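Late entry, evening session. Most of the bench is empty. Finally got around to the prediction I had been postponing all week. Sequence below, unchanged from the version circulated by S.P.
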Amino acid sequence: MDCIDCHTAVGLMGDGRVHDHMSDQVDITCEACHDPQFSTADKVSAFAGRMASLNQKVPSLNGEPVAITRKGTPLYNVRKEGDRTVFYRKKDGVPIQIDSTSPEKPYHALKGHDSLSCQACHSLWIPQCFGCHLSYRESGMQYDWISDKKTPGSWEETRSYLRFSKPALGMRDNQIVYPISPCQ
């Protein structure tokens, strides 16, 4: 799978609104494919049909329901076909049957499982930065995107060690366990 198979334009470029928390901006979730909501609404179908027609690798829509994200963004490559959920890879159109999240699976029924995010168990790696340094250089110049010009002073970020490894786990304010990226 590639990044574009899951991440949507809304997720990458925003939905045009200012959010107080970054998590409110997120469009895609694990459940969008593994416990999907489907739609055949005209607006959803029209957008999904247009996207599928632009990507000749994914089969054209023929009235099948398409999955939608929690914000209602159509996932034109995730379809309801009979009693199956089928995911089509965007680069080559290869179909993959998606297993749904299944509360009856033994590991999903373990005590405390309700306090785990999907990523707590299903993330294989996370970037881990050690020896990060942020330096301000008075003599440098840096482009200021707000004023649309170069301004005096520049910030530089360096690190002495970066690895991709199994994630550490931590608890967020909502008391749910998520992978975290450690730093010194």
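Two things to note before I forget:
Residues 107-180 form one domain.
Helices lie at 3-6, 9-13, 22-25, 31-34, 42-54, 118-122.
Will write this up properly tomorrow.
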